[in-house]
Amino acid sequence: MKQKSLRILITPNVANPYDQRMVQELADAFNRIGHYGAGSPVPLSGMELKKVCESAHIDVVVQINRTRNPAIPLPPHVRYVSWFQDVYPETLDGFAESFHDTDILYSLGDPEVLGINVKVPCYTGSLFTGVSPATLDFNRQNIRKDIDFSLCGGLPHPVDLNPSLKTDLIWYMDSMINHIPLLGRSRTLWLIRKILFRKHLPVDHVPYSTLLAIARVAETFYRPLRGELDIHELADLMSQQAAMHNNEFQEIPKNSSSRPSGRLAKLLKPHTSRFHGRSDLRARLIRYLARESTFLQPGALSPTRKAISYFSQSYPRIMDRKALVEAAAHVSKSLALYGPGLDSHMFAQPYFKGVINDQDRLLEIYRRSKINLSNNTHGLGLHSRTLECMAVGGFIFMHESPHDNTVGGMLTSFEPGVHYGSYTPENFAEEAARWLEDDSGRMRVGMQAESMIRERHCWHHRAQQIIDDLNR
Fold first, then answer.
1. At residue 182, does pLDDT exceed 80?
2. What pTM did the predictor assign?
3. For the segment 349-362, what is each residue's pLDDT rounded down to a tens digit?
4. Is 131 in a helix, a strand, or coil?
């Protein structure tokens, strides 16, 4: 019996060239295996998604780094697939409640290693990115190996850890007023604080002592280039440090609602009762004050929680790259770095060569490089940079990790010395120098890795996996 052809919509997390290309290549793969795949170039809101599903008769929705919008249900017949490639501490707030039992949750590697450590009421699996036919058919002729080391991949911008005593003083004064018993959170004092202080305080201000304590947790407990990041362990330690340095910081409970708190409703009741049933005006007033008052929004991330999110997930990536760039620079100054945000980091600036948005240009860099440097904070090496570099015969140099044998780890698909080069922080210089001298060895490894990509890691393999899982 012939299988029904499904109409599948894939949406990105953000509208950048990388996400758009991944989404479109997965859509193309669905088309190649007999289904209808459409890739949206931009993320869709809940209402937009619902309308597209209805008008285009969509059967399956695949969203990257998103979950269902519970306020706007999709048509009942639509199957939902959520594919998480990045996880932050706040990702799990209300996470499990977002899934139906017919949904599928994928992660880019082992879910628990990536940070999804909660149970969901649906099928959970791992899904990796893939390689397109255009990448496999890339013309590699007449490309000289004229770069010793390269690293392609963006970084978040650094956080300024220099103290601002004036801003801190204003923040502490504002905080003291906020803590006046009974009166501190009254609407009158809130308006006074807003007039006196808010225009002088950055929206995301965190006192210097608190910010420094949070950053020190990452610098003390995270070991770069070992692939052993546990974002929740770091976040918990940072929350404890923040509580010690900032008596206003309180961890927002998971599954908290974004609706105005009961305190706000009681606060507004005397001011709105005279409208006698004009609930629409009262609702608009509640929404306005909830939007303007940051301390009355339990569902929003506080500045301190934003800092914890950054330093537990993004900062270790920066620590990894800094350690890797400095290690490579000690071996050879022929080092080229490409990617958005790298030019804002001092350690990368001497080697920064720009941002690559053209796929052929990216593949050319993989081929020109004798060694393509690679790292992963979680130790989940099977991501797009690794697979696409291997697909054009490039030589990947990846650190060892305790998660190498878990789903998404390098050893689940590849063998060091056969498909890629392996290093540790301790032996990087020795191993890098050895591989730089071994031209034939690097070429052999690249060819063997390419063969494995063709056999197991193309986009049509990923599309077929999704179809098979939908039929479970």
1. no
2. 0.83
3. 999 999 999 999 99
4. strand
Question: Coil, helix or strand for 166?
Answer: helix
Give the span between the Cα atoms of 398 and 417, in whole angstroms.
Answer: 11
**pLDDT at 9 exceeding the cut of 70:** yes
Q: Which residue has the higher pLDDT, 3 or 5?
A: 5
Q: Is the dihedral of CA 351, 354, 356, 360 positive or negative?
A: negative
139 within 8 A of 166, measured Cβ to Cβ = no
Q: Which of 323, 417, 434, 440 is nearest to 375 (CA)?
A: 323
Give the CB-side neighbour count of residue 281, counting CA atoms within 13 A: 9
Closest CA to 82 of 95, 71, 98, 67: 67
∠ CA 73-302-265, rounded to 5°? 65
Note whether 54 and 35 are within 8 A (CB). Answer: no
Which residues, listed in sequence order, are joined to residue 131 by a DSSP beta bridge?
A: 458
Tell me the per-residue pLDDT of 42-91, one tens digit each, with 9 for 90 and over: 999 999 999 999 999 999 999 999 999 999 999 999 999 999 999 999 99
Residue 156 DSSP one-character state: P
Residue 207: its pLDDT value, please?
77
Which run of H or E residues covers position 439? helix 439-456
pLDDT of residue 260: 37
Strand order in the sheet with 60-64: 36-39, 7-11, 60-64, 79-84, 104-107, 123-126
396 forms beta bridges with: 372
User: Do you know the residue count of the chain?
Assistant: 472
**How far apart are the C-alpha atoms of 195 and 177, rounded to whole Å?**
13
E strands in 153-206: none
The answer to whether residues 398 and 381 touch, using CB atoms and an 8 Å cutoff, is: yes
The answer to whether residue 252 scores a pLDDT higher than 80 is no
Cβ-Cβ contacts under 8 Å for 18 (sequence gap 6 or more): 384
On whether the CB atoms of residues 140 and 367 are closer than 8 A, the answer is yes
> How far is residue 87 CA from its own chain's centroid?
6
| Segment 351-355 long-range contacts (CB within 8 Å, at least 24 positions apart) | 351/325, 355/154
Strand order across the 369-374 sheet: 335-338, 147-152, 369-374, 396-399, 421-423
Residues 6+ apart with CB under 8 A from 183: 189
